[in-house]
Sequence to fold (1069 residues):
Amino acid sequence: MDLHEHSALEIREGIARGKFTAQEVCERVFARIRDWDPKFRIFLASDEEGAHSAATEVDRKLAAGEPVGLLAGIPLALKDNLCTSGFPTTCASRILEGWRPPYNATVVERVKAAGAVLVGKVNMDEFAMGSSCENSAFFPTRNPWNPECVVGGSSGGSAAAVAADLVPLALGSDTGGSIRQPAAFCGVTGLKPTYGRVSRFGLVAFASSLDQIGPLARSVEDAALLLSVIAGHDQQDATSTDLPVPDYLLRLREGVKGLKIGLPREFISAGIQPEIKAALETAQKVFADAGADLIEVALPHSEYCLAAYYLAATAEASSNLARYDGVQYGLRVSGDNLLEMYGATRAAGFGSEVKRRIMLGTYALSAGYYEAYYKKALQVRTLIQRDFEQAMTKCDLILTPTSPTTAFRLGEKMEDPLTMYLSDVFTISANLAGLPGISIPCGYSLEGLPIGLQLIGRAYDEETMLRTAYAYQSRTDWHKQRPAMEETK
Amino acid sequence: MPEITEETVKKISRLANLRLDADETARFTEHLEKVLEYMRKLNQLDTTGIPQTAHALPKQNVWREDQVLPGLDRSEALAGAPDVRDDCFRVPRIIE
Amino acid sequence: MDQDYEIVIGLEVHVELATDSKIFCPCPTAFGAPPNTQVCPVCLGLPGTLPVLNRQVLVLAIRAALALEATPAEHTKFDRKNYFYPDLPKAYQISQFDQPLALRGIIEITTPAGPKRIRITRVHMEEDAGKLLHPGADGRLGTAGSSLVDYNRTGVPLIEIVSEPDLRSADEAYAYLIALKEILQYAGVSDCNMEEGSLRCDANISVRLRGDQVLGTKAELKNMNSFKHIRSAIEYEARRQIRVLQEGGQVVQESRLWDEEKGVSYPMRSKEEAHDYRYFPEPDLPVITISAEMCEAISQSLPELPQARRQRFRQKYTLNEYNAGVLTSSRELADFFESMVDCQAPAQAACNWLTVELLGKLNAEGRRITQSPVGPEHLAELVRMIESGKISGKIGKQVFAEMYQSGRTPEDIVAKQGLSQISDPGVLEKVVDEVLAAHPGPIAEYRNGKTQTMGFLVGRVMQASQGKANPKLVNQILKERLDR
Fold:
């Protein structure tokens, strides 16, 4: 097996046993980035020097018999909305071009301390707003399964980096499906933890009450490994939970016997691509064969999720993105006076979708419309949370498709914001309810594009969700299939 | 009559300090109206007496102790600034 | 001021809380540091940063609320107030909107017509903004070609105290601020130092014809940074509004700035829509539940407040209203006085020596009671020496000057300089006899009915004793001798 085909756990194992060195792994990563990145355009900035010295340090420690961390020598890519001290962090936006944060995000500190080798920052939709990675101010990323297709978004670069076997692990963020949907489009495993499970400190905010950082990997096992490292209380994030963090690898193999998996009848809508519907039905059988009980549940307010989500998220975003005004950092377009400078800087610095969402959010909060839009959305959010509470009294997990479609063509949905938003219709409810969700590959379309299924778990119970997803992967090999990139090189 | 007119878009763009050109103004007027029309489906629900959920999960009384810790050096604080004078961030003249 | 009109004033006072670190990050709050040296990624509002509440802010805010007899909310939360300004790094201020920390308080003020209770609408917590400098011809906003921002003050904890429109004159507003300042200082909530900006005030002012029930259109007066300015600013603004009405015009609802140098207020040019603050719940900060236990514990730790202490001083020490007022104007001064009384100084004498001599000297030098070189024990000792007749009042002043100068104890000064009062009748009789022998003329005059010469003779005796003779005894002995 070639080095880049190893899982994260295999790499750690191999390095620890002296089968290969962290430096060899690292060199292989950069060789592949050189080979493939020009084609798929995944990285916004790679850090060969930093990665090399981190790998060298792991090798030195192992040679000296010193203890190493859980991610020792494992290459890892970061979504470019995670702050990295002294290293560019752009959120794929012109407005932050050239900015180097003076601090590391908590997750960055944690993966570094665990010995991960950070190889660079990957592409995304600008400020995590989008479902295709086409809203990057710099360039769209192409899908390793078909370069004519999008990678999904907003964590499209993270999903593509894993799918193209450039890195075994990546971190993304998920506000309405931004980890799970690109994971589905790229045929990888992507997990959004419970809100508060992972510190948001250093994650550039899109919608603060919905954002969570999570792992993308080729398998549930690797995702569990990365989650074990990044999860846990952080003093610097008042919304992070202080509940203890289990070792997510420990109980992966315990199976799903007796677990109840709920199928929300509202999600079997007409808009779903037939191949996805079929893949989901097959997946249900796999879970049933593994010993789970499949039952029908009701999430009656599902059709209102999208509206509630876009109002709440854009309202928060309009406030979170107000700070990009050319005063302290990032882009400034000069103007004769302050207001002209503000207006010109923000006009030049933000892309179209970001502007559209700032406008929508500002409107939803403005005098005279707050009650009708923002307040209404928060009330509906309560109803959606109650739906899940109700459903979860009957089942342990909920099973849905991750996305109603497979990866679409580049440019296909750019002119119609609403159709693009519908791409997140199955994932956003978990963000509104704060619940953990995971997307894993469960088949391929006739065109050969990956299909993902989503499991939504109970709050703070990533363990059961991971165990269920692992049971699926141990019975299927969808996640083991690799894109035939060579052929299209 | 549509809720969103070009005037509304202009007003909102001033609130958000986003300068829009004529083309953008026209496009956003159309987009916003279309998106809001979809959002108004929420009005089908009677939410009288339903509390608002502003935080994903319930949590309360999180704080830190009143303890001073070192922050950034001034050079670090000013490092990203587009315009610096006298150890301060400089901005163009403010018209009240 | 035109007597046909009534002035209606409500005040919004921002007070900096006396914490070591900022409200949402661990940066120091100390005043006067070089620009941009007390900042971190959080208070600079850098992308990705999050606020975490400083517990002491909540404690001090509840203390303030309780001291103002306001009711702390059971549930309170933070909200974002959105507006763009270069001194606001996130382009929103974390403040409180619809669930403030506390509601409905009272401050009692003294007016010429007697005490008056001013209602407080609400008390809420928020973060301060940075400081803007306008280098230009005259340092003013309008003329500066550019402005400079110093973020040291960004994130310093504030409480805002909003009063009902219960104040009816600039003097009442002034009295309200003095009372508020005293209470907050007593409660240990803030040093209320106006020079350092720890107490700032906006005033909502309107005028109406006497007898009118409806409030007039108000103007908000901002940027008043000293108690004196506030009084003249309110007077100016009220006169301006009355003139507008008298000339048949209408008062415009607007924000105005006070220009102290020119003694005028002028309207700010910002458009009305710039004030659509789009408040919404701060998603980065969990809500706060204030338990009855927490309130009780904070309430227990509150000291006696100025109003109560003033009352007690009048009753317990039989001081007049004026003196009780002076002594309780600060907690430190009142504590100084009570320490003197604890050291057996009689209350009235202690009050006199403290307010006349010591405060006189301190005020002349611009020092505060906490900076006094004379401690309460020593000043009490001096008072005791005078009261017991060990030294005369006149010598007392001399000793006090020496104490203030050197910091030595009165006992030490009196002993070393031999200043003890002579109260030994034997010694005094001898001195009196010597003086009488040397002044036969005045004796004759006295005996002829010109009793005023008595004073002359007392003076001679005092002079002969270098001021140390007990004047009461001297009088007594002289009288005996002369009337013999």
